[in-house]
Amino acid sequence: MYDHLVSFKFKQKLDAEKEQALIETLLSFKNLIPGIVEITAGVNVTEEVDNIQGYTLGLRVTFENQEALQQYGPHPAHQQFVQSLAGLVDNVIVIDYPIK
């Protein structure tokens, strides 16, 4: 299995409704994109405010295997989400690693 971690930094603070809509879209991937074992997403609530660096939304997706991870990026549901972020995102950090 593989984990895919994403941290989103937005150009402006999003209101709670927009954050919730993004989270719901991300969570819907489980039913739309093959190979997803588990998915979680949420607003960053860490008390380590010195370490946030503006990253306010997080995503973790566990995939069955590396092939499923590779097919996730170009999947139409993922691409539609990426396009919906146009003009909103300042930066994104992605980390992928195998789970043993």
Automatic annotation (TrEMBL):
User: What PANTHER family has UniProt attached to this entry?
Assistant: PTHR33178, STRESS-RESPONSE A_B BARREL DOMAIN-CONTAINING PROTEIN
Q: What is this protein's record name?
A: Stress-response A/B barrel domain-containing protein
Q: Which PROSITE patterns match?
A: S_R_A_B_BARREL (PS51502)
Query: Which species is this record about?
Result: Paenibacillus marchantiophytorum
SMART domains documented for this protein: Dabb
Extract the InterPro entries matched here.
Dabb, Dimeric_a/b-barrel, HS1/DABB1-like
Q: Gene3D superfamilies under this entry?
A: 3.30.70.100
Query: Quaternary structure?
Result: Homodimer.
Q: Any idea where the Stress-response A/B barrel domain is?
A: 2-97
A Pfam family name for this chain? Dabb
Its domain of life reads Bacteria
